[in-house]
Amino acid sequence: MHKSKKCRVLILVGAAAAAAPTTRADDFATKVIAYDPAPGQFVNDQNFNDPKDALGPPDGAGKLSGNNTSVVTLGGFGGSITLAFEQRVLNNPGNPLGMDFIVFGNAFYVQGNPDRRWAEASLIEISLDTNSNGSADDTWYTIPGSSLTPPITLPLPPEFDGPILENNTGTTAESYFGYADMSPTLLLGDTNADGIVDDPAMLPEDFYTVPDDPMTTDIDPGSGGGDAFDIAWAIDPATGDQANLGGFDFIRITTAVDSINGSLGEVSTEIDAVAIVRSVSTTCIADVNGDGVLTPADFTAWLAAYQNMDPAADQNGDGMITPADFTAWLNNFNTNCGFGETN
Known about the structure:
This protein has 343 residues and is mostly beta strands. It has helices spanning 204-207, 297-307, 324-334; strands at residues 8-9, 31-36, 72-73, 80-90, 101-104, 108-109, 116-118, 122-127, 141-143, 164-166, 227-229, 247-255, 270-271, 273-276, 293-294. Helix content is 8%, strand content 18%.
């Protein structure tokens, strides 16, 4: 997990503000842009074909079973859903584990064993509304996950055909990550990840916005589960070039496995929710060189970040790197970094 730090301000205008988790207008996807399921046994079942079930917080069932009361099926291979949020999802390296968003499905551990997952993997694509028209008609970038290399083509390799995905490292390292509907969603308030609700008063926006480490098996205590993603993982699917996105406005989730398992039917991704990871960072955003001190050297660092299209240059938090970010950097520099705590 990234450690937070305090910033000693040498040039400061304005009063210091206490550090606190960043709150958002809504922590979960709020709008269905498109729902295009592929044929599947549950696509015509009204209990599984309402795309609005992918909005708002998830309903967890724990590690031993998936909750099928509030999920939407994408059907078989190629079925997809596209969602949007009330605000842009930003790439924030200061987030817990560096993760930016979490996708929840109905995966579970077979007999509680995190090395044997009932998982129906899906591909994640994200898009920034560059033309600001509110439509998902800009470039799509792909998160390749652990098992795809450019140029990105589906389906996923045979080991995903399942329905049981076997972890094969023999350690706590996770072999397969970077796909959705792969990890369980815990019961709300199960802060110890032990199947017992420890905090019945916990709110979904406080629990399901904490990422689990996608690189290790099992669910981290304090996290609500699901599959966490870093926007920095996104690439151009044809070339493999890094997308270098400061954020995204639309997410497309697609069933990425082409397999039918006898009487169990086709592998079909089910989606319950998409959450934005809540930032708890107190890092000074204007401290671009990360030395814990605000000095003119941070302007030099900001300029280098701007020229390299590095997310650190996005000082106004709009997910884009433009000349307006210089004005924002100067304001952040002169007003306690824009947020955080000072010495």
